[in-house]
Design goal:
The chain is an alpha/beta fold. It has one domain: 3-Layer(aba) Sandwich (Ribose 5-phosphate Isomerase B, Chain: A). It is about 40% helix and about 15% strand. The chain contains 6 helices and 5 strands; from the N terminus they run E-H-E-H-E-H-E-H-E-H-H. A 5-stranded parallel sheet has the order 2-1-3-5-4, with helices on both faces. Helix 1 links the parallel strand 1 and strand 2. Helix 2 crosses helix 3 and helix 4 runs parallel beside helix 5. The chain starts with a strand and ends in a 7-residue tail after the last helix.
Length: about 150
């Protein structure tokens, strides 16, 4: 069973809760880094623990959510072992996995529906890193853990 980490802020809370249920039903073990309610919170407080879990191999990959997705992606990508990509449609999710070997997918919760989020995650999880010419490009990005 693949272990997946997930974190959000208040804007992504409802979608996060929905996705925890969806992922569990799909057979994934989900480690929820919070928050535990829709009360206003700051996304870095949840992005950093998720990123550390990805870096340390505690989870196979991660999912981050916030209103636009941008803040969560910025905070996650401050970590050397994280390659987080913001996805608003399935094709982008497939590409960040196939070409960028992304280990965290970030969703803009205020701009997509739950059904769109599911389609994005399905595309991400069904894609595999292609290697080849993409390997050399990724090697130019300093990463402590890959």
């Amino acid at each position: 069973m693949k272990k997946i980490g997930i974190a959000s802020d208040h804007a992504g809370y409802e979608m996060k809760e929905f996705l925890v249920g969806y992922l569990g039903a799909m057979g994934y073990e989900v480690l929820d880094f919070g928050p535990g309610s829709p009360e206003r919170v700051d996304y870095p407080d949840y992005a950093h623990p998720l990123a550390e879990a990805v870096e340390q191999g505690e989870v196979a990959c991660g999912i981050g959510l916030c209103g636009s997705g941008e803040g969560m992606a910025i905070a996650l990508n401050k970590h050397q072992g994280v390659r987080a990509g913001l996805c608003w449609e399935p094709e982008v999710a497939s590409l960040i996995r196939r070409h960028n070997d992304a280990n965290v997918v970030v969703l803009p919760a205020r701009f997509i529906t739950n059904d769109e989020a599911v389609a994005i995650l399905d595309a991400y999880f069904s894609a595999e890193f292609e290697g080849g010419r993409h390997e050399a490009r990724i090697a130019k990005i300093p990463v402590a853990c890959r």
